[in-house]
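step=encode ok
step=design start
structure_in=
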């Protein structure tokens, strides 16, 4: 009898535990049902408003769209899902690259600003503006015919400039100008005796001889046989 009572108590305890578990599960299910019902009550007005807004927007564009077009667009989106995924991956990579390069870009921009400020301080920008003004004056001063002739003779022009920019030519012109500037300030003896005394100077005689030779070349160029004269002078030199 005692053994039967013990077993009966054990079964009652097990049954009590099971009932408590079932009651707890039922209460949990009831709470979840209540939460869902409350969520539905909260979302219903929002869903109705969104649905109404969607209808209004579709009514505004219904004459511009077709259900077939939407279906085709949807199918294309579905077919190109992998491409869209790759595109989004690339976009994310670009955004990461932009975030990485942003400090470097700020540093480069700061250096560019500092460089421009230094160039402005040294006068580079003023010189550039003046150069643009010079270019503008040159462009507006030449006609189409002048430009065509310049193109036909550009080689001759460049050769002339190259010859004029030889170091010995530039040094000769510079030294001549410096000496002439100093000599102009000195008094000049224009009497016959003074001129004769100057003629006794070998440098004066050489200068006159060179001047006469240059005048000979100029005269030959004017008469049309300049090339032969220049060749003869080069040969005699």
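sequence_out=
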């Amino acid at each position: 009898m005692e053994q039967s009572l013990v077993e009966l108590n054990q079964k009652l305890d097990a049954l009590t535990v099971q009932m408590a578990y079932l009651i707890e599960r039922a209460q949990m299910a009831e709470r979840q049902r209540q939460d869902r019902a409350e969520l539905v009550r909260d979302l219903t007005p929002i869903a109705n408003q969104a649905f109404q807004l969607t209808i209004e927007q579709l009514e505004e564009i219904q004459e511009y769209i077709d259900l077939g077009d939407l279906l085709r667009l949807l199918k294309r989106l579905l077919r190109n899902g992998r491409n869209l995924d790759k595109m989004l991956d690339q976009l994310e990579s670009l955004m990461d690259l932009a975030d990485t390069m942003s400090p470097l870009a700020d540093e480069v921009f700061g250096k560019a600003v500092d460089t421009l400020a230094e160039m402005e301080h040294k006068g580079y920008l003023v010189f550039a503006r003046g150069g643009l003004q010079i270019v503008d004056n040159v462009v507006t001063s030449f006609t189409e015919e002048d430009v065509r002739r310049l193109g036909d003779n550009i080689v001759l022009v460049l050769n002339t400039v190259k010859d004029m920019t030889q170091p010995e030519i530039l040094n000769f012109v510079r030294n001549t100008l410096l000496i002439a500037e100093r000599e102009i300030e000195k008094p000049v003896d224009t009497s016959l005796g003074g001129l004769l005394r100057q003629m006794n100077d070998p440098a004066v005689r050489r200068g006159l001889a060179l001047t006469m030779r240059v005048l000979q070349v100029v005269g030959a160029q004017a008469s049309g046989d300049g090339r032969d004269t220049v060749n003869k002078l080069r040969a005699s030199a």
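step=design ok
step=annotate ok -> The longest helix spans residues 2-61.
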